[in-house]
Design a protein that fits this description.
Layout (H helix, E strand, L loop, with lengths): L1 H18 L8 E3 L2 H17 L8 E6 L5 E4 L3 E5 H6 L3 H16 L15 H16 L1 H9 L3 H6 L6 H18 L4 H10 L12 H5 L4 H14 L8 H18 L2 H7 L6 H13 L3 H14 L4 H13 L3 H14 L4 H14 L2 H17 L4 H13 L3 H14 L3 H14 L5 H10 L7
Parallel strand pairs: 2-4
Antiparallel strand pairs: 1-2, 3-4
The protein binds zinc ion (ZN).
Length: 443
């Protein structure tokens, strides 16, 4: 019985791989300005150490409790929330990032021929999300391994061969050294996954499948970590602080609110308060959540993300008018963050007043120009265009939102409609053509 289902599972994986990137993504990407900024800051010294241009690696946060990190479609790095939750020290996650950047720099994606060359913007992100869904593997991947179908998975683009793993490790160790980061963190991560091949089906972390561990790998990294033991490494309190915040925030948003509140009942430090504020909001206990957010803001006046959180709590508890000034302050404190602008636009639309609608359209357009992968902003942008009477652009924003959520048929349908409504050759019309590449793929 098990054997049969495992074979079936292996076929499903093969089917999924063949169908990529048409398969609708079975997982969601988390968009959060603060968490993304922190991860970008952690990756930056490693990207630089790899001799790559700053900002050339795009980071995506996958909402999944499974432990995994992988690269897809070129320089796109996906990190599971489960991994961020598991790794308490920034040096550990930076070890993983260094290894992934090693795969990017080594061009290990090239042989995984996926035709995404024609895709741009939301269509590209949808395809990447489809790849991410396949890489998440889930129970099928575990079953395939148990039945000795390892090779099926290894042949796919989801896992690397030994040579690639070794070269990504070598590169990672060089980047960590150049960036002044202790390789001990990376060793700790690999020790966490060591020996997983003897685990039962459901207990294998996808990371161990996509990055097969070998004795040689462990020996090399153990040796480097031992060599580094005598050296002193510069602790970066800024990175440690922001990583702690990212973890507290994710915990607040992803764990059960009751559990979070119980866990931190006795603690009143900033990180505990952050997790509890989010948990109170989700409970929902809006009055307590606002009080708690005020305490965070008092600890760090002008912090854009604490202002954003209070704005979100107010807006989502039906107090959009009070949320608007909070979002304005957040945008003023971090004008380079499109997700904060999108929040301001959302709160403004909720006022349902012509002047606020006009301002919402302006800030949402700015947000969209800086960030083409935010489905919530696209939904709001469609509303703003529609209220302004611009049906063509509203339809385009809807097409882009469907593309992002993997609904290719709906995306193509709306992109055709938008093409017909928008002037031929205009920027909006061209963006509609970017979505139409999805039409060539099956659903
Ligand atoms: Zn690897």
């Amino acid at each position: 019985m098990r054997k049969l289902s495992a074979r079936l599972a292996a076929m499903l994986i093969a089917g999924l791989v063949a169908a990529l990137p048409a398969a609708a993504p079975a997982l969601s990407l988390i968009r959060d300005a603060e968490t993304e900024r922190t991860l970008r800051q952690m990756a930056a010294p490693l990207v630089k150490a790899a001799g790559m241009r700053a900002g050339s690696v795009d980071l995506y946060i996958v909402r999944s409790s499974q432990l995994n990190a992988f690269v897809a479609g070129g320089a796109n790095m996906f990190l599971h929330t489960g991994l961020i939750d598991e790794l308490e020290e920034p040096g550990q996650l930076m070890g993983v990032m260094a290894h992934e950047i090693g795969h990017i720099a080594g061009g290990h994606q090239v042989r995984r021929a996926i035709n995404i060359r024609n895709a741009q913007g939301p269509a590209l992100i949808a395809m990447l999300a489809g790849i991410a869904a396949a890489a998440a593997g889930g129970p099928q991947a575990g079953a395939a391994i148990s039945a000795g179908a390892t090779q099926a998975l290894e042949r796919s683009f989801l896992s690397y061969n030994r040579g690639e793993e070794a070269s990504a490790d070598q590169a990672a160790l060089a980047y960590l050294e150049r960036a002044g980061i202790d390789p001990a963190g990376f060793l700790e991560v690999l020790e966490r996954f060591r020996g997983q091949e003897v685990f039962t089906v459901g207990n294998i972390d996808p990371y161990a499948l996509t990055h097969p561990l070998s004795t040689q790998r462990m020996q090399l990294i153990e040796q480097k970590a031992a060599e580094a033991r005598g050296r002193s490494f510069r602790e970066d309190p800024e990175i440690a602080y922001w990583y702690g915040r990212a973890r507290a925030k994710l915990e607040g948003f992803l764990d059960s609110p009751r559990r979070v509140l119980n866990r931190y009942e006795e603690r009143d430090d900033e990180l505990a308060l952050y997790a509890k504020t989010v948990a109170l909001h989700r409970l929902p206990a809006p009055r307590e959540a606002v009080e708690s957010a005020d305490r965070l803001i008092a600890m760090r006046p002008g912090d854009p993300f604490y202002l954003e959180l209070k704005g979100q709590i107010l807006h989502e508890s039906g107090r959009a008018r009070e949320a608007v000034p909070l979002y304005r302050a957040a945008v003023a404190a971090a004008p380079e963050e499109p997700l904060l602008k999108a929040g301001l636009g959302r709160a403004l639309l909720a006022l349902e007043e012509p002047a606020a609608d006009a301002e919402a359209l302006r800030v949402l357009k700015e947000a969209r120009d800086r960030d083409r992968g935010d489905p919530a902003a696209l939904r709001d942008l469609a509303v703003a265009y529609s209220r302004a009477g611009d049906t063509g652009m509203a339809t385009l924003a809807t097409a882009e939102r469907f593309a992002l959520s993997g609904r290719s048929k709906d995306a193509v349908l709306h992109a055709r409609r938008a093409s017909a409504l928008l002037p031929n050759g205009s920027p909006g019309w061209l963006r509609a053509q970017d979505i139409l590449v999805l039409d060539k793929r099956d659903d």
